[in-house]
Amino acid sequence: MIAKKVSAVILGALILLGVIYIVFGAGGETIKNKYTFVGKSDHWEASYKINAKEKFYERNGRGQYDSEYEDQFKLIFKGTDKEMAEIEEFHYKYQSPAGSSDSTMTFEEPRTNKVFSSGAFHQGNAIPREYHIIEVLVRWDGNEESFELKVQE
Fold this sequence. Notes:
By secondary structure, the protein is an alpha+beta fold.
């Protein structure tokens, strides 16, 4: 009786492992990439981190591709706290061959935090590659600076 229960548990575990293998990892190749783009201008410095996963596999005899990545963009004002507190209007945009993002803000109260950041999870989209150049544009109170981010070596 105990032998039958043990056999049933082992068989159930093997079936579960088989299903997990088929659903999550049956064949194919998964490639993971992680890199950080960096750059700066006279008043700003930025970093753009990418953590990506791509999967190449076959389904019904046809090649398939899935992609997903998380990104984190951080923009830092290099000026003084006093200069930061004087900024009233602010806009930034960053763009790669894989996509872009931007943000516009108006400050009614003096701002002391010199860090601006954004991030997102993307699925099924083109992934920024380590050989891409990320273009950054920052506008604040009638000023404008643009600069490039490249992968940190």
